[in-house]
Amino acid sequence: MKTIIQSLVISFVIHLIYIVGTVGVGYIKTRNYKPDIDNKWDNIETLQNEVSFGMVGSPLFFLFTFIGVALICAIIIISYRMFIG
Asked: CA angle 22-25-27, nearest 5°?
């Protein structure tokens, strides 16, 4: 039972780091964006009216990756205990 809980916690932490990292990189890119108005002045294009942050994905995808990473972590923990401990 301890191995299952450890693997779920590690999987949660990995997914949390991934999501926070993705949002952080998007935030940094948005804060540091400098539009090149001088060169774009002559080239007229239709501008987009909406802006979205993040990514669109199925919640089932995150569930499957969460379970998959937890299984990989459990295998690593069990093999570590067999060979080292």
From this structure: 105
3-class SS at 2?
Answer: helix
Q: Hey, what are 33's tokens?
A: 């964006």
Q: Which DSSP string corresponds to 6-65?
A: HHHHHHHHHHHHHHHHHHHHHHHHHHT----HHHHSSS--PPPS----S----HHHHHHH
The structural domains of the chain, with segments of one domain joined by +, span 58-85
Q: What is the pLDDT of residues 72-84, one digit of tens each?
A: 999 999 999 999 8
**pTM, whole model, 2 decimals?**
0.72
